[in-house]
Amino acid sequence: MIKRQVLSFILRWFVSGVAMYICINFFGSFVEGAEEMRTSFWLYASAGLIFSVINTVIKPIATIFALPMILLTMGLFTIIVNAAMVGLTIWLMPDVKMTFGGAIMSCLLISLINYLVNLAMPDVK
């Protein structure tokens, strides 16, 4: 049972890393002189791990504080909360920049990728 959970975590971490690779290369940019990081495996692996930790720890707290706006907008404000989580991840990454519009597009793309992976992956209990 624990083996399946570890494998599930590793797969989700890999998927988050691939999603961050796509999002950073399409919607983000690197600071001047750091273009060699574009091909760094560890940059995207750490981005996937940081994004997973932020979604596990900070996102529930942010969602509770944003609950009045989420209710007022009938759930559409969750896009802003998700974009803030992507923005926080990018802010923590060295030499990577992204606009808030890029963060919104990234959160939509990451949601689509995670949805497709959840369809293909059975639940781990």
Structural commentary:
The chain is mainly α and 125 residues long. It has one domain (2-120). Helix content is 75%, strand content 5%. The protein contains five helices and two strands. Strands 1-2 form a two-stranded antiparallel ribbon.
Summarize the structure.
With 125 residues, the chain is mainly α.
Question: What class, by secondary structure content?
Answer: mainly alpha
Helix content: over 70%
Helix count from the secondary structure assignment: 5
The largest sheet is: 2 strands, antiparallel
Listing every helix as H and every strand as E from the N terminus to the C terminus, the arrangement reads: HEHHHEH
* Beta fraction: under 5%
Give Rg in angstroms: 15 Å
Shape: globular
**Which parts are unreliable, with pLDDT below 50 for 5 consecutive residues or more?**
none
| Distance, first to last CA | 8 Å
Overall average residue pLDDT: 88
The tally of strands reads: 2
Number of domains: 1
- Biggest sheet strand line-up: 1-2
